[in-house]
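pls design
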């Protein structure tokens, strides 16, 4: 029992030692292998046995992150992992000679590397490739993974901003070798998105790859490249909440300017304030967009809204003029009376709100009439105290035969004690004059009221027209959203 256990322990111990020794020898073999491989190796020359044959490089790009999309400068900054695989004819060994060593990892600067570059690079940094290790297999296969932050130029078409989608090309190709020397192949038919970190602004809809072979006119050599097309769709909710909704809300205020009573004196300033607010938003958008010819959708919407607000403000000014048509103005033309006051006001539900002349003048008309035949010659001008009933002829104890109310005065005709009308022609003339004054004033007031009513009806018409316009424009812009 004891002995077998001892034997077992010894066996395990010796086995462990062997493993250790093997490790040791593998380290030595790796050292020897590297020396042997590098003895006559030059990293400057294309490693092929037959120089007429092309060297095949397989390219695989993994998109890790979209760091930034600069619409204004038309630059896409992306974080990529680039894997290149090729066969080096001079870096082969037989596993048996080196104790079964299959793979070694050596600095990439020691071996020949294909000079694949991003053609549409938009970077001012022209430093060389990153010196990461390469994985070298015994059959000469080299796998080289490099991380890269690429700045690539990308034609950004913002016509449909913020509902736009973009296509950004990443074109890789050899800088100096032509297709007969170094040929590029695609690892997969699209970029790898399995490790993609979602971007807050852009949704990635794939990254298909295509191989293009370009024959330049001068030389008949083909120049292959691989183009990855990054399909991006903008997440528009941020812009909807920050740029579109405020504009909707503000633009709905503009038609309400027509509803504002003219006497408040705020009609024009409301329009101008709305215009200013829209300008701020428009500038915000304009700052982030490239100054290109195709105006973004949202810019068009702003321009349309601003045009509308400008028109509404201008119209408000005209209507204000109509509203304040004074006594000097001509009376409202008959057709306008029929069309606007009679029909339109009913269509647009414009009702009188206590601004008619009927109430104060109606009373006056009654009191204006003469009662009986006994009138005193004198007419007392008297200040009319607001609210208090007109005190008539305080000097005389008699009741008033008639009163004339001239804002702000009350004229009273009082019955004399004698009860006999001493009809003075002068008095009659004066009374007639006063009466005609009243009539004139009443007519003027009616005229003013009519113009005001015309203005009000027009205000209401334009309010609805502009409401419909704002609504239609909003529908139009939402309709463009996918
Ligand atoms: C390297 O080159 C030398 C001289 O040209 C030659 O003697 C030697 O055998 C070569 N070594 C290998 C591993 O090919
Ligand atoms: C490269 O690939 C092409 C076909 O794609 C093949 O004909 C050629 O032999 C390959 N070259 C080498 C060196 O393997
Ligand atoms: C991007 O590459 C694809 C495929 O090569 C090509 O059809 C397309 O025109 C390119 N787009 C731009 C903007 O260059």
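designed seq:
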């Amino acid at each position: 029992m004891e002995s077998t256990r001892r034997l077992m322990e010894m066996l395990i111990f010796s086995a462990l030692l062997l493993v250790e020794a093997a490790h040791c020898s593998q380290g030595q073999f790796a050292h020897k292998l590297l020396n042997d491989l590098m003895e006559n190796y030059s990293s400057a020359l294309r490693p092929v046995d037959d120089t007429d044959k092309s060297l095949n490089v397989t390219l695989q790009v993994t998109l890790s992150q979209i760091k930034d999309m600069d619409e204004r400068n038309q630059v896409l900054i992306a974080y990529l992992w680039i894997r290149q695989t090729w066969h080096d004819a001079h870096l082969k060994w037989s596993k048996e000679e080196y104790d079964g060593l299959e793979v070694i990892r050596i600095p990439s600067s020691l071996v020949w590397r294909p000079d694949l570059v991003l053609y549409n690079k938009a970077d001012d940094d022209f430093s060389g490739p990153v010196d990461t290790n390469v994985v070298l297999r015994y059959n000469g296969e080299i796998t080289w993974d490099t991380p890269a932050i690429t700045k690539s130029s990308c034609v950004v078409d913002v016509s449909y901003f913020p509902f736009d989608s973009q296509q950004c090309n990443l074109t890789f190709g050899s800088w100096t070798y032509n297709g007969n020397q170094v040929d590029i192949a695609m690892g997969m038919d699209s970029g790898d998105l399995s490790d993609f970190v979602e971007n807050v602004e852009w949704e990635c809809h794939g990254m298909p790859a295509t191989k293009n072979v370009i024959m330049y006119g001068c030389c008949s050599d083909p120049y292959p490249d691989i183009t990855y097309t990054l399909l991006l769709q903008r997440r528009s909710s941020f812009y909807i909440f920050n740029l579109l909704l405020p504009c909707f809300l503000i633009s709905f205020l503009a038609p309400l300017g027509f509803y504002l009573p003219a006497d408040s004196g705020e009609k024009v300033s409301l329009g101008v304030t709305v215009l200013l607010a829209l300008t701020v938003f428009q500038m915000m958008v304009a700052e982030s967009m490239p100054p290109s010819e195709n105006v973004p959708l949202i810019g068009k919407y702003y321009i349309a809204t601003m045009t509308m607000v400008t028109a509404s403000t201008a119209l408000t000014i005209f209507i204000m003029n109509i509203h304040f048509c004074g006594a000097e103005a001509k009376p409202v033309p008959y057709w306008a009376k029929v069309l606007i006051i009679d029909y339109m006001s009913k269509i647009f539900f414009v009702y009188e709100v206590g601004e008619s002349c009927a109430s104060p003048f109606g009373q006056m008309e009654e009191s204006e009439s003469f009662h009986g035949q006994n009138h005193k010659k004198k007419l007392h001008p008297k200040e009319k105290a607001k609210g208090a009933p007109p005190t008539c002829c305080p000097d005389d104890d008699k009741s008033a035969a008639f009163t004339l109310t001239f804002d702000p005065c009350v004229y009273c005709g009082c019955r004399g004690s004698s009860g006999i009308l001493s009809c003075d022609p002068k008095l009659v003339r004066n009374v007639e004059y006063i009466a005609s004054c009243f009539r004139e004033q009443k007519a003027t007031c009616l005229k003013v009221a009519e113009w005001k009513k015309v203005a009000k009806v027009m205000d209401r018409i334009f309010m609805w027209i502009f409401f419909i316009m704002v609504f239609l424009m909003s529908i139009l812009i939402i309709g463009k959203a996918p």
